[in-house]
Model the fold of this input.
Amino acid sequence: MLTEGVAAKPPRARPPSADTALLGIYEISKILTAPARLEQTLGNVVAVLSSFLDMKLGMITILDQHGNPEIVATSGWTSRDGGKPIDTLPAKVIDRLVATAMPVIVEDVSRDPLFATAAGTITRAVGAKVSFLAVAIKSDSRVVGTLSINRTSEDWISYAFDADLRLLTMIANLIGQTVKLHRMFSADRQRLLNECSTLEKALVSCLPKEIRGERPDVAGIIGESPAIMEVLDTIAIVAKSNSTVLLRGESGTGKELFARAVHDLSRRSAKPFVKLNCAALPESVLESELFGHERGAFTGAVAQRAGRFELANGGTLLLDEIGEISPAFQAKLLRVLQEGEFERVGGSKTLKVNVRFVFATNKNLEEAVDKGEFRADLYYRISVVPVFLPPLRERPGDVSLLARNFIETVNAENDQEHELSASAIETLQRCYFPGNVRELENCV
Done:
């Protein structure tokens, strides 16, 4: 009953009772301890909060390390309100909460300068007259977010904010602990993922490149064309065995480089790589070069000398231009291939060697066999794994790579800085180059 002459005080809204507040904290704590994504957890928290407080709009924002909203969870907002939920929380309010960690209480947002840009959005979403209450969410004394509510404030109702403030502060503390745990878990998870990735890369790096699906690095071989990639794939596979390799191709296609690649990629890579051009020597000299000779075996043999077979023991021996050797020498070579044994020229002691053979030729050996110029049994001995090297005209895309590599070599050797123009590259790509890579190198 009103006393005459004394203005009546507006009724105060009933704050949540202690039992109601306790029940609300209990329900929210269950949500915060349940396994779920942080966004989903916070959305459930603000939804439960709306059932315990007389509010029209509730919002939880979690800030990133730069102070910008990273997660926004709301209750009471619909798409019909227009804009975005975060539009109802001005940056000035967030800045004040971060700077002071003190609550922000506004009885009428339409009259407060903090909400100069957001009042319209809030009144559309909540009502004609809106009050605002926000507290900071802290983790280890650092503000990591905000918890805020908006409610209608009719002229005849005055709210007691103290009880709401205590409840929001307790809930904000619980949320702060949850955010801390989620971020610790996320950081640990990322650290473990990084460690797993590092370990995986380390383990993969220990595997041979062909097992990793990568092509091994081969010194001196330049090219990216499908033809050259196919040869490299074959070389990488055959190199791991002890099979005899026959490199076939036109002059200047790089047979010696590929023979070196077979050796370098094999288990014999730490042993000698020895080469000999069979077409460059007379047969008598070729025999001495390959088998070696004893002292006094012929005029001028003043000392014992080891041949290429002995020098290559344990490693790889490249015999280039194998199609040019005589039938008589073919028989002597066949014995070494079959038995791994030979005698030095002028000697009687049988020597045994362990050599991986790589042969090279630009000759049509099948035609030579048909004509009787090359032994069929030797042909089958040396052609265990034939590898055909493509001529340069079949890999035009590699011309620019090769040419630029050659010009860099010339520059380094002569202390110059020449470059190949685009028109020069186009001209080189149109050339036939019967001498293949060797001719291109000489041209550059």
In short: The chain has three domains: 18-188, 244-388, 397-443. The longest strand covers residues 142-152. The chain has 15 helices and 14 strands.
